[in-house]
Design brief:
Layout (H helix, E strand, L loop, with lengths): L1 E6 L11 E9 L4 E21 L12 E23 L3 E9 L28 E4 L4 E14 L6 E6 L15 E5 L14 H10 L4 H4 L3 E8 L1 E2 L8 E6 L11 E17 L8 E13 L4 E3 L5 E2 L16 E2 L3 E15 L2 E13 L10 H5 L21 H29 L1
Parallel strand pairs: 11-19
Antiparallel strand pairs: 1-2, 2-5, 3-4, 3-7, 6-7, 7-8, 9-10, 10-12, 12-16, 13-14, 13-15, 13-18, 17-18, 18-19
């Protein structure tokens, strides 16, 4: 028998609430006794890993590996298409109709997978596949058609993978920047140049002149907490001098270098065994590195650290998510080197960055649809003008003279070559 699944529409990425329709085609050459023909629509999260088998009597490095695997069914829907019938030698076609659910189905106890994984029903995670340090983590959504025949025949199955991507709840055109004041990184550039004796004398006298105190610089990083693929990542820095002593002539800081890195954290667990082996995969990428900028940084002024700095929409840009046995999160790290009167200081900052699902074009706010290009003005004939017309006579004379000289030089070279031969 020939069993196929034909999904309606072109290849597409499904989202929350989308319908999945199509038909199952069964072709038989001879008369066939069909016990059941059903189709199921499922979402499955599969985690695998390997661990060495401990043997107290064998301490070599070639210890055998034990494979662990856990398969969590996110949801499952079934439809019976045929039941207890006798098919002639022809093709049978049966339609099906499913819909992506809002939430997953299972519910686990709080001791099943640990505190970092979800236990209650939650929004569907995206289609996902990655290699971990010891195995693999895969999240798939698929249709599976199963044909059960009478007698001793084995069931016949076929399946069709359906890519899925979550739908963002709050669609924002521009990400919001939040401020983080780094009080733990207060910089006193002039006090760093004092010797040990100067510091000791300052403590003994309990008096320090305001002219020698210098500024006390508090950095503030302005950053986003959530970002969608393709959006501009706003990154700013501002400096504030919190020294109470008045300064006659205050020098300003300069921005020397900027380095931005993004870290991807993927965890997966197989919780069926008593040990519950867990794999943690970390990947760090340098997104931006600029040196020798020498850019002035006035106090109490926001300064942009990166221009046109966007999140690339590629296969690695998976939205942040948590599910029963897999998690995915991102960190954004910023290192800024400041200079003040020849002295350097590095401001370091790391924050959790949530990557939102990409926004489909059909769900973009209506602001973009209203911004249409202005039509071109209608054509109106006008009198020809000699203002910008070329001087044909002068151009023709120049071209004629240059071409004649070139022809003469070419004729002389031909004549000399003919004479020499």
């Amino acid at each position: 028998p020939d069993l196929r699944i034909l999904v309606d529409g072109d290849a597409r990425v499904y989202r929350r609430g989308d319908k999945v329709t199509g038909r199952v085609v069964l072709g038989v050459e001879n008369e066939e006794n069909v016990a059941a023909l059903r189709i199921s629509f499922s979402g499955v999260c599969t985690t695998t890993t390997n661990r060495p088998v401990y043997n107290p009597h064998r301490a070599d490095a070639t210890a055998p590996m034990q494979r662990y695997q856990e398969r969590v069914r996110l949801f499952n829907f079934e439809q019976d298409l045929l039941s207890g019938c006798l098919l002639a030698s022809n093709k049978e076609s049966r339609t099906f109709d499913f819909k992506f659910p809002e939430l997953t189905t299972p519910r686990y106890s709080k001791w099943q997978h640990g505190p970092k994984y979800l236990k209650s029903p939650h929004p569907l995670p995206p289609s996902f596949q990655t290699d971990t340090s010891g195995g693999q983590a895969v999240i798939t959504y698929f249709l599976r058609a199963t044909l059960v025949r009478g007698g001793s025949h084995r069931p016949l199955e076929t399946q069709e993978i359906l890519p899925y991507h979550p739908t963002p709840d709050n669609i924002q055109l521009e990400p919001q920047a939040y401020s983080r004041v780094l009080y733990a990184q207060i910089w006193k550039p002039l006090s760093d140049s004092r010797t040990t004796m100067d510091k000791a004398m300052s403590k003994l006298s309990r008096h320090r002149s305001a002219s020698n105190a210098g500024p006390r610089i508090v950095p503030t990083i302005h950053h986003p907490e959530m970002i969608a693929p393709g959006q501009n990542i706003p990154l700013y820095i501002s400096l504030e001098d919190v020294s109470h002593a008045p300064q006659c002539q205050v020098s300003q800081c300069t921005l020397d270098s900027v380095t931005v890195k993004m870290s991807t954290h993927t965890t997966s667990i197989c919780g069926q065994s008593a040990s519950s082996p867990e794999d943690i995969h970390l990947k760090r990428v340098t997104c931006l590195s600029k040196t020798n900028l020498e850019k002035p940084l006035p106090f109490n002024t926001k300064t942009k650290l990166a221009h046109n700095f966007r999140l690339v929409d590629d296969a690695e840009c998976v939205p942040s998510f948590k599910t029963y046995t897999v998690t995915r999160r991102y960190d954004l790290s910023v290192a800024v080197v400041l200079k003040y009167e020849g002295r350097e200081f590095t401001v370091r900052f790391t924050t959790l960055l949530e990557i939102l699902p990409r926004v489909p074009r059909e769900l973009m706010p209506g602001v973009l649809e209203e911004e249409e290009d202005e039509p071109l003005p209608p054509y109106a004939p006008r009198e020809p003008s000699r203002e910008f017309a070329p001087q044909y006579e002068s151009n023709f004379q120049l071209e004629q003279g240059s071409s004649s000289e070139t022809s003469l030089a070419y004729a002389r070279s031909r004549g000399s070559s003919t004479t020499s031969s």
